[in-house]
Specification:
By secondary structure, the protein is α/β, with parallel strands linked by helices. The chain is built from 14 helices and 9 strands. It has one domain: 3-Layer(aba) Sandwich (Rossmann fold).
């Protein structure tokens, strides 16, 4: 993978060259994955965030392959080419993720979520689905959401789905999102952000994104029952200290509900760890135990 000191860049599609498209079923549910290094003996499942898609996880997957993992990257319901799932409570997403993992037919060594994907992985563990030998890694969880993010749902909800989707996909809207979210002075990171935005234009449906965004505000799993001490000891939370999607209280709240978990802080990264610091974030896949003082610095 190209690090942030290099003048050379690669597209996400180039990073994912050779990855396999895998479609599975479990019961009546259908799932779509990108898979890297499928024959490896240990498995990592990586869950992207709302309005993203499985290609977003490509750079993290490449870093995980170098650590010896087979990596499975599913699409969220209604994202990429995964079927839409009508949900009325967040627990349904945790159950969906459990079926998604079971459809692989392998017990993962680690499940890793980013942003909304972290909330799904947390709920998956909260409901007791996390296997006893599996670790949980959550990148930039969202227990408290910044006002700038909270207001988008109600505003966009005022317009019909096709209209707001067209507005969401305009060049101006994409430029604003990338410039707002980008917290690292990295040509590669910004290139990946733009590529991700334009890649999803043919299939993004903001009706689904808005609905899921509102759901985490009304039924946030981090505000529900706490996971057990045993699971916490197998949990690592990776924070970008320049994260502007959550409120400043998010990190403190996470530490209060996860006193036995391990916390890593990426000092120069924001909310988009999978583009801004994929190697550094993935380095936490193998971490075990408790070390709340651990800090990591993103290489510039």
């Amino acid at each position: 993978m190209t690090n942030q000191t290099s003048n050379q860049t690669r597209t996400l599609r180039e990073v994912a060259d050779g990855f396999k498209l895998l479609k599975t079923t479990y019961g009546s549910s259908k799932f779509s994955f990108l898979v890297a290094n499928e024959a490896a003996p240990k498995v990592a499942v990586m869950m992207h965030g709302v309005t993203g898609n499985k290609l977003d996880m490509a750079a993290m997957a490449e870093a995980a392959v170098k650590l010896g993992y087979a990596v499975y990257m599913p699409d969220l319901p209604g994202h990429g080419d995964a079927p839409e799932l009508f949900v009325t409570e967040f627990d349904q997403l945790g159950r969906w993720f459990n079926e998604c993992v079971l459809s692989i037919g392998r017990i993962p060594e680690v499940v890793m979520g980013h942003s909304y994907g972290s909330a799904i992985c947390y709920n998956y563990a909260q409901q007791g689905f996390l296997p006893e030998s599996t670790r949980l890694v959550m990148g930039c969880p969202t227990p408290t959401i910044a006002w700038s993010t909270r207001i988008l749902g109600p505003i966009t909800g005022m317009f019909p789905g096709p209209i707001i989707t067209r507005l969401y996909n305009t060049k101006l809207a994409i430029d604003v999102r990338v410039n707002y979210l980008s917290q690292v002075n990295s040509l590669q990171s910004r290139q990946w952000m733009f590529e991700s935005e334009y890649h999803k234009v043919p299939f993004i449906d903001m009706r689904i994104g808005n609905y899921l965004g509102m759901l985490i505000q009304t039924d946030n799993p981090f505000r529900g029952p706490r996971i057990s001490e045993d699971i916490q000891k197998r949990t690592t939370v990776v924070l970008g200290l320049k994260d502007n999607v959550v409120t400043p209280k998010a990190a403190g709240y996470l530490r209060s509900i996860l006193p036995h978990a391990r916390f890593g802080e990426l000092t120069d990264a924001g909310h988009i760890l999978h583009f801004e610091a994929p190697i550094e974030a993935v380095s936490y896949l193998d971490h075990k135990g408790v070390d709340v003082n651990m800090r990591s610095v993103v290489v510039k």
